[in-house]
Structures are given as structure tokens and as C-alpha cells.
Amino acid sequence: MDWWRDAACAHEDPELFFPVAVTGAALRDQQARAKAVCRRCPVIHPCLSWALQATGAQGVWGGTCEEERRGLRRGGVQGESALGVTGSA
Ligand code: SF4
């Protein structure tokens, strides 16, 4: 996980990425704020790849919540492909 060194969330409150609420507007709001950090993160691709392989990963990783990652796994979509990246950098 060398990519972690460049994680945008390293400078954020970790609790933002692990919502306490399980449903409703509070959950959606917290997830949206965490995903906004992910969208400007330079390591979103390897982060999502890791999270898709780590089936026990909770919270927001790689710009996705747990439910979204379950959907991506069911669809057979892997990390960078899920983000629309087809080649390596
Ligand atoms: S993509 Fe999101 S969760 Fe992953 S390292 Fe970047 S900011 Fe953190």
C-alpha cells in the first residue's frame, strides 16, 4: 500500500470516511463529503482497487461506499475499470 503516502484523506478527519449513521440524510451527507475528498485524491485508482479486493473494508474508499463496491464486485468490475481507466499510468 505505498499509494497511501499520497492519500488526500491523510489530512482529513478519519471519522469522515467511516460514517456512524447507517441510513438516511446524515449518512448520505457524510458519504458525499468523503467522496468529494476522494475525487481530488491522486491515488483514487489504487485505493479503489485495494478496497474491491478487501471485502471487509468498511466506509468510503476510492470514492465508493460499501454498497457501491458490492455492486461493482457483482458486476465483475475491478478497480481501475470501475473508474473508467483502461490502461495503467
Ligand atoms: S481515494 Fe479517498 S479513501 Fe482512498 S486514499 Fe484517496 S481520499 Fe483516501
TrEMBL record:
The keyword Iron applies. The Fe-S cluster can be nitrosylated by nitric oxide (NO). Residues 8-71 form the 4Fe-4S Wbl-type domain. [4Fe-4S] cluster binds at residues 9, 38, 41, 47. It is found in: Cytoplasm. Keywords: 4Fe-4S, Cytoplasm, Disulfide bond, DNA-binding, Iron, Iron-sulfur, Metal-binding, Transcription, Transcription regulation. InterPro entries: 4FE4S_WBL, Whib. The keyword DNA-binding applies. Its cofactor is [4Fe-4S] cluster. Binds 1 [4Fe-4S] cluster per subunit. Following nitrosylation of the [4Fe-4S] cluster binds 1 [4Fe-8(NO)] cluster per subunit. PANTHER family: TRANSCRIPTIONAL REGULATOR WHIB1, TRANSCRIPTIONAL REGULATOR WHID-RELATED. Acts as a transcriptional regulator. Probably redox-responsive. The apo- but not holo-form probably binds DNA. Belongs to the WhiB family. This is Transcriptional regulator WhiB. The lineage of its organism: Bacteria, Bacillati, Actinomycetota, Actinomycetes, Kitasatosporales.
